[in-house]
Design brief:
Layout: E1 15-19, H1 23-36, E2 48-52, H2 59-64, H3 71-83, E3 88-90, H4 100-105, H5 114-120, E4 131-135, H6 138-142, H7 147-152, E5 156-158, H8 163-177, H9 181-197, E6 202-205, H10 210-216, E7 225-226, H11 228-246
Length: 250
């Protein structure tokens, strides 16, 4: 089969997933990775290894409150994946992408970017010049992870404007992380509604706890949403598919 490593050899393609931020978000990413893969059987699925390290220091505290940097722990997890043979990396955590460049620089293999993957899909759901609402941590907003890319791509951006909505996002994320995803989803729903009232033509779910929270609560925005976790999964599948074509023999 194209792209399959011979017995006893290192795989030509092995996705390394730098996860644990949080654990449910990592599982959500892996489920979306499997669901996004066109497959007739096991051998058609993306080969991957996972480092799920929930003890990585808080990315939000590091950015907003001068907390301990997560970079050493992230680099250690990255190196574990590389030692396991990873040939490409992905990190299903939005805020952690503040350190993406530093992690990619020392990796020596491609490191996919969750925001690039998501914004590349925005034009499929939002008209040029339209408004995209963003639900994310305060830290993700502070570093402009999505706003800068969306504005560069020609979109307008809406973010939670009042303190109650900002608090609702933080409380929703905390609820998902402690295992009450449905309660988190109900908190996110208030923010989704506010962004829709602000004229958002699509909602970008810019924290990996948001999609499983909304799903657990049975909530779907009235307007389209952009799920960066799913976009990253599709980018991984695309990379896997390209590697198989490159490994094909006439």
């Amino acid at each position: 089969m194209p792209g399959r490593a011979s017995a006893g050899s290192a795989p030509a393609f092995l996705l390394g997933v730098l996860g644990g931020m949080g654990p449910l978000a990592t599982v959500d990413f892996l489920a979306k990775l499997v669901a996004a893969t066109p497959a007739d059987g096991d051998a058609d699925h993306v080969p991957f290894v996972v480092a799920s390290i929930p003890q990585v220091p808080s990315r939000v505290h590091a950015i907003l409150a001068d907390g301990d940097s997560p970079l050493p722990a992230l680099a250690d997890a990255r190196d574990r994946l590389l030692a396991a043979g990873a040939t490409i990396l992905a990190m299903p955590c939005n805020t952690a992408h503040h350190w993406h460049a530093a992690l990619a620089q020392g990796a020596g293999v491609p490191f996919l970017h969750i925001a690039d993957a998501a914004v590349a899909e925005a034009s499929a759901v939002v008209a040029a010049g339209g408004t995209v609402g963003i639900i994310a941590t305060e830290a993700t907003h502070a570093i402009g992870l999505y706003a800068s890319r969306l504005e560069k791509a020609g979109f307008r951006v809406a973010v939670p404007a009042d303190a109650e909505d900002v608090r609702a996002v933080a409380e929703g994320i905390a609820a998902v992380k402690r295992g009450d995803a449905a309660a988190g989803g109900r908190r996110f729903a208030h923010v989704v509604a506010a962004l829709e009232r602000a004229g958002a033509g699509a909602i970008l779910l810019g924290c990996t706890e948001v999609p499983p929270g909304l799903e657990a609560a049975g909530i779907r925005p009235a307007c389209p949403w952009i799920d960066p976790t799913a976009a990253l999964a599709r980018a991984c599948v695309d990379a896997w598919s390209r590697s198989r074509v490159a490994g094909a023999r006439p």
